[in-house]
Amino acid sequence: MTATTDTTKGTTNNQMKTDHSRASTDAAHTHGGGVVPEASRADRATSFELSDFPVPTGREEDWRFTPVDRLQRFFAGELDGAAPDVTVEAAEGVTVERVGRDDSRLGRVGAPGDRTAAAAWASFTEALVLTVPRNHVAAAPTMVTVTGTGADGVAAQHVLLRAEESSEAIVVLDHRGSASLAQTVEVDVADNARLTVVSVQDWEDGALHLSAHRSRVGRDASLKHIVVTLGGDVVRVTPDAAFAGPGGNVEMLGLYFADAGQHQEHRLFVDHNEPNCVSRVTYKGALQGKDAHSVWIGDVLIRVAAEGTDTYELNRNLVLTEGARADSVPNLEIETGEIEGAGHASATGRFDDEQLFYLRSRGVPEAEARRLVVRGFFAELIAQIGVPVVSERLMEAIEAELDRTMEHATA
């Protein structure tokens, strides 16, 4: 197993960048022609104008792990594929609107950060807006089911989730079917609100899904952002979170399971731009089968004004069979020494044959022993998710994936 860990407590270094995972695995990350170097995360370009983003070549830092050859249609100026079917089961008190792109509430959380996100912004015609009213506590999750109607053309979709002041709710975005979808999800959490957002990517084989999540968290507000990726050909989710006042809390959780030929990529950015805010990131993934590929990039920026920040990010990957690859790159950039704590950890390892031998030596059949090891790997994270309808779905999905694991193991 290869593992890298970095933890900083109360550092006095005003310009500190840590990227130990990348440095320790350079041999595995070689790309023809070299990778375009990246400046500070604070300088990353954002824009609503498509022309401000060149077509990716795969040499850019943001795209160096991505199979851009499979995504060329997403880089066009106009995305005109058939929109997915969307159904909403709203909790009592949560309002549901379908609005035109001229609605003044759209685009206020932040501007797109790459060409695909800009193309999605330029191409959608109708947006889904969900609002949790001020002081309202939703008694049940709001379920949004997004069903693809085909992968022939690239569709654009825009979703805005609004939690008004002192409200509390859970929203689940459930993606199914077959699609080529460029999606934007804006999340606006007002002061003292509590919002949980779950995005499940359970696409059929052949689906392509690139989704930009942009979140703004107000004073003393909390956002729990959960990403679950199980299906699809290429899935790339880029969650960004920034604070709009002191005392905010962001928790980002992710679980993914990549099979043969699948590319699953999660690129996170937490922008600590306000004092006394907390962020925690935990992503875990398993991979199996030839050319299964997962990518996790975790960027945390602590700006000069963000004194009192407390942040930590963790990524773990479990490689179940030969031929699978996991890339994991945690990045921590600190511009002030007046923080409570900051750190990260990343590890990728093969299935532990010693654990398997231990269980089998005590009479546990091989198939059940493998299940126990993988269940244990994911158990703590599933418990953290804390949304029963999602947790149950995850356990069923993991069981189905473990059936495939046995197929790989006996092939």
TrEMBL record:
Residues 1-12 have a biased composition (Low complexity). One of its GO terms (biological process) is iron-sulfur cluster assembly. Pfam families: SUFBD_core. It comes from Georgenia satyanarayanai. Residues 1-42 are annotated as: Disordered. InterPro entries: Fe-S_cluster_assembly_SufBD, SUF_FeS_clus_asmbl_SufBD_core, SUF_FeS_clus_asmbl_SufBD_sf, SUF_FeS_clus_asmbl_SufD. Residues 149-377 form the SUF system FeS cluster assembly SufBD core domain. It comes from the Bacteria. This is Iron-regulated ABC transporter permease protein SufD. PANTHER family: PROTEIN ABCI7, CHLOROPLASTIC. Belongs to the iron-sulfur cluster assembly SufBD family.
